[in-house]
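Supplementary Note 3. Input sequence used for the single-chain structure prediction.
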Amino acid sequence: MRDEDLTLMRRFAVEPGLVGLDWGGFRDAGAVARRFAEDGYLSERQSILIVAADGVTAGMVSHGQKVVAGHGTFQEIGIALLPEFRGRGIGWRAQAMLCDYLFQHWPIERIQAGTHPENVAEQKSLVKAGFQLEGILRAVEFRAGRWRDAHLFSRLRSDPDPLLGTT
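The predicted structure, written as discrete structure tokens, is reproduced below.
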């Protein structure tokens, strides 16, 4: 992430609907610059990387370390693309590239991602990026005034790499 990307990050914090179904209400737009000054959006708790298409900022991907139980850590990823870049194959490639990066540089076996049941495009994108549907998490998030379900996907280190054409 660079200084010029902070404008996009502020937009994600304050523009309803820009991140699609993930809009969770207004956020502190000043937190964007504070976080960038703190660690450049690269840390073990959560990192954010910019997605570019033809040299233009298209959105961002994120990853963060999670623990289920014991000593088993994994990474959870997310993506937000600007509306004009959706549906062009950018998302699945960005997520697949992020997985490759994480498997190369983190001692993890698992990467997971969740999405909304109504976000069929993201479900297809995750499958194309090498993820498998594990199940439905019932009433897991509060959004738009009610509790909603989520679909949970995962990709393991041993799964075929979709960027190599082995899926």
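Strands lie at 47-53, 56-67, 73-81, 110-115, 132-143, 146-156. The chain has a mean pLDDT of 92.
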